[in-house]
Amino acid sequence: DFPSGFGHLSVKAINKILPHWTPGLTYDKACEKAEYDFKAEGEKIRVKKLELIKHAENDGKSPISNPIVRRSTSQTIKVVNALIQQYTSPIAINIELAREMAKSADERKRIANEQSENRNNNEGIKNYIKKDLNKSQPGGIDIQKVKLFREQRGLCMYSGVHIKEEDLLKDGYVEIDHIVPYSVSFNDSYKNKVLVLAAENQQKGNRLPLEYLDGQKKEQFICNVNRIYERNFEKKARLLKLEITQEDRQNFIDRNLNDTRYATKLIANMFKKYLQFSDAPNFKDDDGANRSRVLSVNGTMTSFIRSRFGFNKIREAGDTHHALDAIVVGCTTQSYISQISRHYKKLENGQRKHDMEAGKFIDFGTGEVLEHQEYIQRGLDKRQVSHKLKKDLDKQHFDSEFSPLKNVNATIFRENVENLITKSQGLHDCAEDKIFVSRKPTRKVSGQAHKDTVYGKVKVENHNGKFDSTKRFKTTKLQALKLNKNKDKIEGYSDTIFAKSDQILHKALIDKLIEYNGDAEKAFKKPFFKPIIDKKGNKIEDGNLVKSVKCIESTNLNLELRGGLAANGDMIRIDVFKIGDKLTPDNDAVKKDLGYYFVPIYVYDTVKKELPNKAVVAKKPYEEWKEMKETDFLFSLYPNDLVYMENKGKKGHFYYNGADISSGTIGLLSHDRSQLKSDGKDWDGRIGLKTLQTIKKCEVDVLGKITSIKAKQVRQTFDKKSSLV
Prior knowledge:
With 725 residues, this protein is of the alpha+beta class. Helices cover 33% and strands 18% of the residues. A six-stranded antiparallel sheet has the order 24-21-20-19-25-26, with no helix packed on it. A three-stranded antiparallel sheet has the order 7-8-11, with no helix packed on it. Strands 15-14-18 form a three-stranded antiparallel sheet, with no helix packed on it.
């Protein structure tokens, strides 16, 4: 053994590392270029397929304590192993994890609240733009301009001149500028943006504010920054940055290209240490050096590339946006980013030529197409900084020059990707050239055994004073009250002991509802007071304020708790049965019973001696539900189980998404959770189970391959040790 301070490398390893260990390159980077992990503890045996405990948790010696990270790592291993099984070992892997990965529940809740608050703020700004700035369809740029205008107290950040609010959205008046140039930082976040007069933005070019400004203008700028951003230290630091060094430039790229979070590093290191890659002698950087086989891509960079291609990531359109992300992540390489960086540096320095549009120069004020000489004479090359012009010209240049695929320009690449995403959305016909979103069923037994609220019991009249377990008292706001058809009673209230014992209040409520034709929202919009009346029934004055009354509510499957009734807790699955497979009855009494049924299984049922056998009958109390036979059992459905369904023109594969015992319906989702359609109209996915033509349970693997389950299913019971939450 060598003494301390000496390396332990074989001659083979040294010969592979030395060619990459050029001046200015550190040992760890040279090791990476040679495809070695300089931190590795001894030689690792590379495998074709990975295992969670063995490779991610170091044979159990380094268990992953964060359950979200452990689950995501496990799913990643399953997907990669499945890809290798179907294709072969990869040449390289690019990774981007969701931004919320490895964050605590409190952090995710805080982020969700901030996003909600931001959406509400944006809606308020949209309304302001429509009403006060007379723009009927404001876009994202418009919203950012208003935000920055308010944040900067109406000042142009560079000149200190007051911006005219009425001209804020006028084309060519003001622009949003990146404080640290985009070509250097790749930072398109709100924290790297300011609102400035268009001429200031054009003159600043590819420089920092303090590199651009001088003299009194510079001093005024520093004063304004300190005053406006006194507590916004991050933005203040960017605005007052003195210079961009070569080290800054490299750090910006490294920070934006590489994701250094715990979860991403864990998965990336697992691939680097243990995964066997395919031979790729031509897998090199622009300088001829071997490229790293594993790249952890920062979300900022994928967002940047996505926007450059014009891909609109609309989450409401469904989960296929994750596939779009995966395609973009696959395009993200060091050489590609460097190529785009050079493009943006030229753009910001004003070196772009307007003749990119085939010699046409447009005056966006008049719409005229001008010759180059006239365009210069009008001074448009200096003062016209139309956002539309920049965007159009930039898009043309980008489309003609930049694509992550050889021999395919960006326009064709974008069209191919958009066509793939579009045709994969909504109902799916299982075509192999479409994306199918694979989901993991939720089979965990957890949740509430009963709801928190305990309601009062309701006695059944003329029934020996017994309580009705299908009815309970519920406090109801006056705005939710309803008159019956005869308009002489309030549904759920008039027959209660509370109404009968207080006829004055009862009559006053009915009279008020009749006055407003049964519209409780209007009737009780203003505060309602119980009237005080004299012996003749005339009102003397207002009495106590009344906001709500106790009404009877019909409900199924209540649990007796602390002398009252509580609604059943979480439904964990439904058991599906079918009556009539082998029957051809002649009488209508039997025919009406044919069809599919479901028995709801709740958390509380998991600790009972036997599973319930009563199936839901729509709009009927529990006592009238239908008893099922075990021989008629088909299968169980948990949330995210895949089914194939046919019924009256609706057919396809859907994910099960819960059931409603009052209506006897089940909820279905498209594979990508985009809006379902039926006969050209939006459909909420609710459908009655009993009258379906066909429903079959299916399985989908991690790569989206679907198979129907044909084997006879056995109704599964629960471990009696299941705990209730």
